[in-house]
Amino acid sequence: MSLSGKTAIVTGSNSGIGLGVARALAGQGANVVINSFTDSKEDHGIAEEISKAFDVEARYIQADMSKGADCRKLIETAGACDILVNNAGIQHVAAIDEFPVDKWDAIIAINMNSSFHTTAAALPLMRAAGWGRVINIASAHGLTASPYKSAYVTAKHGVVGMTKVVALETAEEAITANAICPGYVHTPLVEAQIPDTMKKYNLSREDALRDVILERQPSKQFATVEQIGGVAAFLCSPAADQITGTTISVDGGWTAL
Ligand code: NAD
């Protein structure tokens, strides 16, 4: 398989998009590192399940992406990093003049600063291996804004900017850096919001999805974690060797509006 022998580290990969990307890369034969800050039995179980399902090495490494030293230690502990997927992220919604400072700091640290620390630690390993891929899971909110998401929009725009700088600093090497910008993706977190939205607006599931949750997504469909994983796998393929420093939107037309 195309990624046999490569090691992929996916931050925040015990659920949602990160898990989908880890599974997609394992499906291409990559050994994967699953990460979260929780260190639970379930976290370790995910790595075991992926290892068995795809016949690759998969291990769990605990690290808190809100802490720079932990981010760097994650890469050091893994010992190899051919593919770095910066995915860990959180959200908080509030008007900017009421935005809790601790939430602002946490979002900037986890959604943006962590990518600086992991990338800084991973690039020497990629250079030593002579090949590397940095894939940042940004967002449609890395390219456009919504009210009440100041910290998230700031962090995701920052990640898109950082992606371009990493691409330029590695341009003459066999290393690429790109950002995937999903619109709304069907994850357990999003699924959990559907019943409340139906109740709040007295709508059927179909109408709640179309008119509220997917209001800004012209396709009126969620992207799936498998589709985001597929794009990540494509970015690791030889077809993507000359794709660097750019964003790939997977947003059903959101940013075309
Ligand atoms: P999720 O809540 O399922 O996943 C978030 C992941 O981040 C989890 O694995 C969690 O363990 C991890 N995480 C959170 N804080 C952490 C910390 N301090 N240290 C280590 N890991 C931590 O949500 P998701 O929707 O899969 O989001 C994944 C990424 O995709 C995020 O960066 C998010 O901004 C981005 N994104 C999601 C959507 C969407 O619609 N779901 C859209 C665009 C972008």
Structure, described:
By secondary structure, this protein is an alpha/beta fold. It has one domain: Rossmann fold (3-Layer(aba) Sandwich), CATH 3.40.50.720. It is built from eight helices and nine strands. The protein has helices at 16-27, 41-54, 68-78, 101-129, 150-169, 188-201, 205-213, 225-235, and strands at residues 7-10, 31-36, 58-62, 83-86, 132-137, 175-182, 185-186, 223-224, 247-250. The strands form two sheets. A seven-stranded parallel sheet has the order 3-2-1-4-5-6-9, with helices on both faces. Helix 5 (150-169) links the parallel strand 5 (132-137) and strand 6 (175-182). The longest helix has 29 residues, at 101-129. The N and C termini lie far apart (38 Å). Bound molecules: nicotinamide-adenine-dinucleotide (NAD). Nicotinamide-adenine-dinucleotide binds at residues 12-18, 36-37, 64-66, 87-90, 110-111, 137, 139, 182, 184-185, 187, 189-190.
